[in-house]
Amino acid sequence: MSQADDYRLSRTVLAVPANRRRHVESAARSTADAVFLDLEDAVPESEKAGALQGAVSALQELDWGSKTVLVRVNAHGSRTLEHEIRTLSPLPRLNSLIVPKAERPAHIEDITRMIGAAEGNARRAPLTVDLLIETALGLVMVDSLAQSSARIAALHLGVGDFAGSIGARSAEIGGSPDAYRQTVAGAAGRYFETPLDLFAYPMMRVLVAARAFGLRAIDGPCGAYRDATLTRAWAEKAAALGFDGKQVIHPSQIEVTRDAFTPSAEDLAFATRVVEAMRQAENEGRGAVAVDGKMIDYANLRMAQRILMLGAAGRH
Fold first, then answer.
1. What CA–CA distance (Å, rounded) separates 152 from 133?
2. Domain coordinates in residue numbering, the chain
3. On the chain, which terminus has fewer CB atoms closer than 10 Å, C or N?
4. Is the pLDDT of residue 250 over 70?
5. Sorted alphabetically, which SUPFAM superfamilies does this protein's record hold (predicted)?
């Protein structure tokens, strides 16, 4: 099996409330790589039980194709969590549970023990766990969280709750506050302002933890789902940084987000030239070579190989 065959595409992870059957059916028909059925923040307390039943029905009845299907359960300590895990874990079509408000490794250990006791023998592969890092404490503990269980497959950055956790004055989920900017004095009494990115640090922190422990990294959503420009720009930022994908909250965001995480023809062509040039250099006993006027070495080779792997995975 090639690396591309084994790679789970997560360019677009569409979120949908599990209690909204029409929306769930639309998500199943969508072109998203993955869908997560939400039992947590998108579901009012009075509809939690109905949302769980909706998730079960959707997993048993709908055709999900090759999509990765996840369910976001409620946080550790909630009154419904254990019942959710017992109900969902045995379902063969469920790939992963998303654990929100991940903060303490001991909590993740509790949850994975519940999964182990509940999943049974009907599954073809063990149920994995994705951790949603969305509080200040979760970010501080992210390294320990990332290695708290062998079931963990991915880290997600929860941009909305994280901004609230640190007290950021941002009205747009995934965006920086308007006033978060650097102002400097220039010549002749002129002032210059540079907008700053609230999420530069948490994105890098989550990404580094994911890569250090062999996990996928998923960025949080762009809340301005009707704004194609912002959706595209924020997806391109996450893709350029190295994330595997991004949550989306509306089907209209799927195409532009997928495109941002899919290597372009130019990217693939350059990566191919890098791999071929480095192969020739190795045959000649050299560890570096010039490609398109740039000096290329083994670090570039690894980046090129990842681009080619992403391109191959996207064709499956």
1. 13
2. 3-262, 266-315
3. N
4. yes
5. Phosphoenolpyruvate/pyruvate domain
